[in-house]
Structures are given as structure tokens and as C-alpha cells.
Amino acid sequence: MSPRTAANPSLERMPAKSAGTAQLSFVRLRRIQMSFPVEEEFIVRTERKLRVAFPVSFRNKMRSQNGGSVEADSDPCELYPFFDTSNKNRVSRSCNDIVRETDGAKEWDLFPPEAIAIGSNGSGDQLVFLRKEDDPSKLGDAVYRCEYQNGQLHRLAGDFSEMT
């Protein structure tokens, strides 16, 4: 990591690529969003809107850090926050919330109807929880990646607490 990217973690140097005789190198910008705690009432509101209960490990993480990022198969993913209306700043920082992003993903032909989107890798793939088959009002503990191109689900972790 260069001093420039070390000083600014939103810049990431990409490897040089050969294009004929020229060497190309570029910098990819990553959006860094400062996370903040969220009150239980906003988690409950989201659960009511979606008619599900989130896994305990996910709720605990989001209570202390509403949003942020995790690694999913070495792919950095941004987590969607719970919509927080406690002040103008939090409204603007949480407007890409779980409900909105799940509704957007459900417009895909191949997005599983039992899935709730909790994050994205920035390339269209979604991190999701699935409703439990025996109790659709609860989400299972496992975290999956739903591929944008084909709707395939890949299990990433048995529990959200395993995500880094």
C-alpha cells in the first residue's frame, strides 16, 4: 500500500494491466461510510415492515454499528443500515436502508422471494438472509451471496458473527 492509500483508505491501488506496449494502472475509489449506533426501535420498525425477525448476531452488530462493511469471500461488502429517523444526519446516512434495498432487489427476476438483502459487493451481488422454511417470520442465521446475473445462492457463513 502506498503512503497515499495508507493515508486515505478510500483509495486502493489496482494492479497494472498490460495494454499492448503501455502499462495501465488505476485507482479504484471505495466509499467509506462512517457507521453509527442505532436504537432498537429502528430495528423493530424494519422487522415489522418486512414481517421478519433478524438473527441475534446481526441485530447485536448493527445496534453498535448501523451499516459498515464486511468481507465476503475476500470481497468487501457494504452493509445496508436500518433506517434511522432520529435526526437529519442519520436520515441521510441511512436512506439506503435494508427495506429499500430489499425492495429494489426484488425487482430482479431471479432474486429469491424468501431473501432479505442486508448488503452488497458494489457489483450487483447481494448479501442476504433467507426466511426459515418452518417459520417464515424469522430469518435463518446463515448469510448468503445472491449473484446478480443468475440468482444463485452461495452460503458464506453459518452465522453473521463469522463475517469479518
Describe the overall structure:
With 164 residues, the chain is of the alpha+beta class. It folds into two domains: 30 residues, no CATH class; 123 residues, SMI1/KNR4-like (3-Layer(aba) Sandwich), CATH 3.40.1580.10. The chain is 24% helix and 25% strand. The protein has five helices and ten strands, in the order αββββααββααββββ. Strands 5-6-7-8-9-10 form a six-stranded antiparallel β-sheet. A two-stranded antiparallel ribbon has the order 1-4. A two-stranded antiparallel ribbon has the order 2-3. A hairpin with a 2-residue loop joins strand 2 and strand 3. The longest helix is centred in the N-terminal third of the chain and has 11 residues. The chain is globular. The N terminus is likely disordered.
Keywords:
164 residues; alpha+beta; SMI1/KNR4-like; 6-stranded antiparallel sheet; two-stranded antiparallel sheet; 5 helices; 10 strands; 25% strand; globular; disordered N terminus
Could you outline the blueprint of secondary structure elements for this entry?
Blueprint: H1 3-7, E1 11-13, E2 17-19, E3 22-24, E4 27-29, H2 40-50, H3 56-64, E5 69-72, E6 75-79, H4 88-93, H5 98-105, E7 115-120, E8 126-130, E9 143-146, E10 153-157
Antiparallel strand pairs: 1-4, 2-3, 5-6, 6-7, 7-8, 8-9, 9-10
Distance between the termini: 21 Å
What structural class do the secondary elements suggest?
alpha+beta
Which term fits the overall shape?
globular
Low-confidence stretches: 1-32
The CATH H-level superfamily of the largest domain is: SMI1/KNR4-like
